[in-house]
Amino acid sequence: MQSILYGLFAEKYIRVGNHVEVAARHSPETHVLPAEMEQTSTAEKQLEQTGTAEKQIHIHLTGWRLHVLTMANAFFTGFPFYVSIINLPQRFQAVDGTSPTGAGLRLLALLLCTPLASCLSGVMNKKLGISHTNLLILAGVLQTIGVALMSTVPPSQHAVRPTEYVFEALMGLGFGFSLSTLLLMTPHVVKSKDIGEYRFPRSPRYQVIDFSAAVANGAITQIRVLGGIIGLSTCSTVLISRIKSGLATTLSSGQLTNLLQSTQTIKALPPHLQDSVKSMYASAYAEQMRIMIGLSAAVVVASLMTWEKKTGTV
Prior knowledge:
Order of helices and strands: HEEHHHHHHHEEHHH
Shape: elongated
């Protein structure tokens, strides 16, 4: 039954110069095409072999300056973005002694400002005429300031201060401006030759579809996640190394092992040890944010490099 359904409904991709025609396999049009129309690409061969085809990013896209810079911007933004939304709630629990729910609520300043800035970036670009380049520079500056201020929280402080919500808001605004602007900017930086004409099954007309913009946006999203994964692994290594070296003489081997498995064991420690452990965790989280300062500064540099000599901005 599966083979019968596949034979009835599977479609074949046929390339004609720069045009790609999608025709049903049972359509008689597939038997009258000239020889030059039967050249198949790698994606087409994959479709015939497996029944699926994946869009592949074009090599010349990665060699274009603006596209590389937008991907670099997304890559470096991924570091502080994912580190903030993952590690800040952990800090609230380990250092400030809040519950998991309380830690999530204390992150709302960042989480609410991020989509707010994403909405504002489109309005500022469309209505106020602010260029994508300027929005990216603003995003980089805001998140750099927010990350730098968050790294200044003293290790001796074991309670959330109101100013920390301001720091979160600055980071959230920076992340929001960056994430949305990169996606809005992509259609302006991919080359026009990447736009192709397609004819869908049982449709007599060709439709112009910018497929490379979609592929480029997907690449930006994925490379931002890649940066976040690398950032989280780096910060995890910094945290474990700092806790092991700083508390090796304070806690027993059993207590240290339990602590690395779960920060909830801090509550089971004697009061005089709890302050030492919390201060060490606060110091480790501050070091993580100091590392993120440099990566946030790289976002500013990448944004400045998107400036076009002829037009000034993109």
